[in-house]
Amino acid sequence: MSDTPIETPTGDRILVGVDGSDHSKEALREAARLAQALDAPLEVIACWQDPALYATSYGYVPELDPEAFQADARHMLQETLQEVFGETRPARLSTRLLRGRAAELLVEESRNARMLVVGARGVGGVLGMILGSVSSALVSHAHCPVLVVRR
């Protein structure tokens, strides 16, 4: 037996990344069950990318307004919460929209989380939440335990 202390996450919140996909909705349901069982706050995060970031991936940027991307992400987040919880949301639920690449942002947010929950696959595209690659990156780099939920 070792006397070396085990490093544990510093936060008490359950963090879940959503992108509107069925996989992320199931991850949200599971995260809510865990948060309730552990009497922990639940924080739901949706990430969106500035259209300029697509220039490096696709070689061009159509005429798109960054505020429209943010509005789409906000709308997706509200629709996801409505579909999963209806009008009865968990008491300790909070939400945030973050601008940038989902994997990088969620890894950073995991520093102060008890657990991070994500879907096995996402929708990809405009919201930048390709959870197949995101979930893989999170399992490798997150600072807390990661639960990848399959549908």
Automatic annotation (TrEMBL):
One Pfam assignment: Usp
Domain UspA residue range list: 12-150
Gene3D superfamilies from the UniProt entry: HUPs
Transmembrane intervals: none
Family as reported in the entry's similarity comment: Belongs to the universal stress protein A family.
Protein's UniProt name: Universal stress protein
Species of origin: Kocuria sediminis
